[in-house]
Amino acid sequence: MMRQYELVERVQKYKPDVNEALLNKAYVYAMQKHGQQKRASGDPYISHPLEVAAILTEMHLDESTIAVALLHDTIEDTTATRAEIDDLFGEDIGALVEGLTKIKKLDLVSKKAKQAENLRKLLLAISDDVRVLLVKLADRLHNMRTLDHMSAEKRARISEETMDIYAPLAGRMGMQDMREELENLSFRHTNPEAFETVTQRLDELSTRNEGLITKIEDELVELLKANGLPDPVVKGRQKKPYSVFKKMQSKSLSFEQLSDVWGFRILVEDIPACYRALGIVHTRWRVVPGRFKDYISTPKQNDYQSIHTTIVGPSRQRIELQIRTRSMHDVAEYGIAAHTLYKDGEEVSGEVKLSPKSNAYSWLRRTIESLAEGDNPEEFLEHTKLELFQDQVFCFTPKGQLIALPRGATPIDFAYAVHTNIGDTCVGAKINGRIMPLVTRLNNGDEVEIVRSGIQVPPPAWEEIVVTGKARSAIRRATRAAIRKQYSGLGYRILERTFERAGKQFSRDAMKPVLHRLGQKDIEDAIAAVGRGELSSLDVLRAVFPDHQDDRVTVKPSYDEGWFNMTSAAGVVFKLPGKPGPTTDLLEGEGPEALPIRGLSGNAQVHFSPSGAVPGDRIVGIMEQDKGITIYPIQSSTLQKFDDEPERWIDIRWDLDEANNTRFMARVLINALNEPGTLAEIAQAIATSDINIRTLTMGRVAADFSEFQLDLEVWDLRQLNHMITQIRELPSVSTVTRVYA
Questions:
Q1: Which residue among 202, 391, 699, 733 has its CA within the 20 to 30 Å range from the CA of 264?
Q2: CA 98/CA 72 separation, integer angstroms
Q3: How many Cα atoms within 13 Å fall on the side-chain side of residue 737?
Q4: Domain TGS, which positions (predicted)?
Q5: What's 351-384 look like in SS3?
């Protein structure tokens, strides 16, 4: 375990006038508060904040940040309070420690929602003070280094989260060394067999080529000096296991096919020297075509600058070269830590902030803007992950403005990157002067001109085309607004009819005084909620006219041997197959359980067509007055009668991201020989496919043939199609067809 004096000495090496008293006080306070607490490894708990602080000294951070690292677990894990830390260390340090605590203290059932909320809080805290991120990443790095002492389940969960969020976030903030270490530590636990195999092969390669890296370094230095570049620094290294594995996966290569396992960095004094070094190297050795990138003239979004090239270098080895200045190297190594204002001797109210000129800051600002755009936590997490993981292409507007986009982006992404309104009104695009489809993937250097129309509304299908979170968020918002408008029309008609039946006149103004009772923000929200089935029209009637007495029929359910017995207030008994649910209002109905379908909002009253629909079908929703939404497969013949009423159509699709725990009904028609055993063969094939028969109807269609209509309960379309194939192979079966009503 690191000692207190060793930590102070580390800071003194890059900051001789360090405030030793602050560091000593923070150490003593943390030591007292953590007391006899132990880590899973058995080490004293204080060893963890000390190691986190040590990681931050490698980035040459100020003593305030080091003090926060020492204190970062005190509020969460000890009796320490924010007020106590404010008194002892000042409000600046107290706010940082509390900010780190809030990130962890969440009580959410959904793992995905908890992860999303943690990321939201982290990004918001970073926007106030970037030191929150630096401490959080150092905390995660030390936890990953000591993960062996956790259970296998915890190791897998923490490693997956690190690979999903923290490693790419470190990369997006320009902290490449930290990203690589986090990735490798995660790789070791998420895929131990692959990690072991790749590590072993790299060790064998290193042993076989012992001394080669030093030889290439010396040859490059000698070449650059001989051509007039003073004091060049050349650093070579073998690629990390995860980097090698990722390349093997993405390029479908075996280890033997990898030709650039070594990378070398050339550090020179200034930008002109970078291009001189490039010319010297290219003159001496052959260049590998298509492997040149200039990130000096066009920096990455995390502020990374360097020239990348691959050559067939000394000893005929293919090697990657990165040519950069020493200041660029600091940014590449430490990312945002190299951009903090205290580096320039400026400190504003004790806070270390990102420079507004930083590209990393710009990305962070755009991401934080999306927090206010109404996305749910899962959508926000999905969009942020997309932006964290994607490589980049750089395109230009007709006026020369540079737009950086994820690789695979389309003109639609480009339009939304320029401005949300431009994306919403986009109808076409010119790429390098030529009209091209909106699904075209953009390339580096493309000039993109967006063609707009004032009457355009972004189609929901665009969501499947775009790759940026901003575009997806905007398209979903526009889709929700369009659906809200449709629901408002349906809700208005339902309310008119309900009020008319009660002998009352419906008006929007009458709803204004009772919105708070209905739990709605505004009148249009309330009307749309009625259209979705979330709000009963009778509840609106009673809210507007409290004295109104309705004559609704109340159904009281009971359950007996597989039948649902419903008795009305008038004493009439309805006997239906199934299980009972809650008390039901015959006039209005109740919303169903949540369905794995995108495009439905809240607890809308949802029904399926008589022949059903299953995950994997292309589906559409039809708004039907008094019934809510009915879901049809796109092949349903019933849809033809709605051709002239496009306002009733709702764009929906199955959401198969989560595991499906529900069976859905599908109807099939089987024509088979009328002989003993036929039905048994068919039933056996259905049972073997793990499919349940809900109902069976049969009749004779000819002297030798019978027709069976079966309503089946299946998990998805693949299972249904597999069963249909199995039944078609039965010798007694003539035809099997899916029924779409």
A1: 391
A2: 8
A3: 9
A4: 391-452
A5: ECCCCCCCHHHHHHHHHHHHHHHCCCHHHHHHHH
> Of residues 58, 76, 177, 333, which has the active-site annotation?
76
Q: Which of 317, 222, 197 is nearest to 263 (CA)?
A: 317
Positive/negative CA dihedral, 134, 137, 142, 143 = positive
Euclidean distance between CA atoms 630 and 368, whole angstroms: 38
- Rounded (5°) CA angle 241-246-250: 155
Q: What is the mean pLDDT of residues 322-338?
A: 80
Out of 77, 160, 164, 585, the active site residue is 77
- Enter the pTM of the model: 0.53
Task: Answer yes or no: are the C-beta atoms of 614 and 590 closer than 8 Å.
Answer: no
**Residue 564, H or E segment:** strand 563-568
Residue 446, pLDDT > 90, answer no
Pairing of strands 262-268, 318-325: parallel
CA 423 to chain centre: 21
Mark whether 551 is an active-site residue.
no
Sign of CA dihedral 471, 477, 481, 487: positive
**Which residues partner with 654 through β-bridges?**
597
Query: Do residues 29 and 74 make contact, with C-beta atoms less than 8 angstroms apart?
Result: yes
Burial of 428 (0-12, 13-18, 19+ CB in 10 A): middle
Note the pLDDT tens digit of each residue in 473-491.
Answer: 888 888 777 777 777 877 8
Provide the b/e sequence for 353-378 (b: ≥16 CB within 10 Å): bbeeebbbbebbeebeebeebebebe
Residues 6+ apart with CB under 8 A from 505: 499
Distance CA 290, CA 288 (A): 7
Q: What is the number of other CB atoms lying within 10 angstroms of the CB of residue 10?
A: 19
Q: How far apart are CA 150 and CA 40, in angstroms?
A: 7
Q: What is the mean pLDDT of residues 708-722?
A: 92
DSSP string, 220-246: HHHHHHHTT--S-EEEEEEPPHHHHHH
The domains of the chain, with CATH numbers, are 4-175 (1.10.3210.10), 194-334 (3.30.460.10), 390-467 (3.10.20.30), 479-544 (no CATH), 606-651 (no CATH), 664-738 (3.30.70.260)
Across the range 676-692, mean pLDDT stands at 89
Is 77 considered catalytic here? yes
Residues 6+ apart with CB under 8 A from 430: 436, 448, 449, 451
Residue 350 CB neighbours (<10 A): 15
pLDDT digits (tens, 9 = 90+) for 370-406: 544 545 555 555 555 555 545 567 788 888 777 878 7
For the chain, the straight-line distance linking the first and the last C-alpha, in angstroms and rounded, comes to 72
